[in-house]
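Hi V.,

Quick status before I head out on leave. The structure for the redesign project is tokenized and pasted below; the design run finished overnight.
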């Protein structure tokens, strides 16, 4: 079975998204740009479907600039 393609991150719009697998077999999608985590699911298909179903808001230039400014200062992840 072919899995659906992952949509961009619903928070930041990045295409840098992967599916991660826990030791117990559960999976979740995660954005490698803003670190948004998808819900843990029992299968890769369910994790991708949940991720792809999330509402994607338009990314405003102000919102993206704000994130980049925090990243440059080193506190994008609360550091």
């Amino acid at each position: 079975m072919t899995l659906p393609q992952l949509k961009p991150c619903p928070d930041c719009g990045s295409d840098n998204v992967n599916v991660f697998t826990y030791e117990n077999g559960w999976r979740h999608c995660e954005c490698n740009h803003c670190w948004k985590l998808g819900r843990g699911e029992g299968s890769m298909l369910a994790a991708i479907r949940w991720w792809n179903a999330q509402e994607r808001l338009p990314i405003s230039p102000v919102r993206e600039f704000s994130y980049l400014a925090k990243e440059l200062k080193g506190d994008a992840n609360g550091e």
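Above is the designed sequence. Strands lie at 17-21, 27-31.

G. will cover questions while I'm gone.

Best,
W.
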